[in-house]
Each structure stands twice: as C-alpha cells, then as structure tokens.
Amino acid sequence: MSDAPVLGEFEHIVLLAILRLGDSAYGVTIRNELKECTGREPAPGALYTTLDRLEDKGLLTSSLGDPTPERGGRAKRYVKVSSQGMTALNYARRCYLRMWEGLRFPGAVHG
Fold first, then answer.
1. Domain boundaries in the chain?
2. Residue 4: closest CA among 97, 94, 80, 84
C-alpha cells in the first residue's frame, strides 16, 4: 500500500483540470475545464469546498492574484497541484491502469 492520499473521483478530476490549466487555474477556469472535458457543471460551492479540502490535505497550493475592477476589486485565487498532489495522482493512475489491465467487455477501449 502507498502512503499517497486516496482521491475521491471529483477530487481526481479537479486535480487533473488544474494540471491541464497550468498557471491559469482558478475557480471559473476549473469549472469551465470540467464542463468541457466531462460535461459536468459542479456548483461553485462544491468546487470551492473541494479546493479547500485539497489544500488542507496538502494536495494543492493557492495564491491570490492582483485585485481586478471587473471582479469588484476581488483577487482571483490561483491554485497549483503540489508534489504530494502529483504523488496522489500518479498512484491513482497506476491503480486504475492495473484494474483495467486484461478487462474485455463491450464498449471498453482496448489498447
């Protein structure tokens, strides 16, 4: 067994969205990426609660950008996947690949 934290499915896709977005990852862009890639539109509260939980677990870090007039003077909270978050994602990927290995059923992508 690994010491990597176990990710829930939503935590997993949120971390992947953050990686895909790079330096432009903050709440709105993460929600848009999730919608584009998965068809899911999480409620803002659900996303921000998940971001807080991931940061509390040490799986991501956040920093505030400069306040902007179009946001009413509020700053964007940018997030990045931490090294511990990368460890958790890599562990999850290895587990999923091992579980998929050798499965054959209609509709599965084989390769």
1. 9-98
2. 84
